[in-house]
Structure of Sec translocon accessory complex subunit YajC:
Amino acid sequence: MDFFISSAFAQAAPAQPAPGGGLMSLLPMLAIFAIFYFMLIRPQMKRAKEQRSMIAALVKGDEVVTAAGMLGRIEEITDSYVTVEIAPNVQIKLQKQAITAVLPKGTLKSA
């Protein structure tokens, strides 16, 4: 008749956690956060800082590339906008954030 009722056996007492066990369980999470910080967050912050300094240093006559890929020469700068000449007598007005790169002088003549 033992096949209808399973036998009950005593269990051993649970093991005591090792000292510092709470810190050891947080260590992998801290390591993952550190990896994300140094591999993703910090480089992105550095690129954003470089972009802000490049936009702040724009002056009339700089040759630039826009986010749309157009090349042009800066004709006028205001607080938020830049007027760029992309062809003779063709000017467009852009937000400063649309400027992605400043080209070396003389690049437009060879393009």
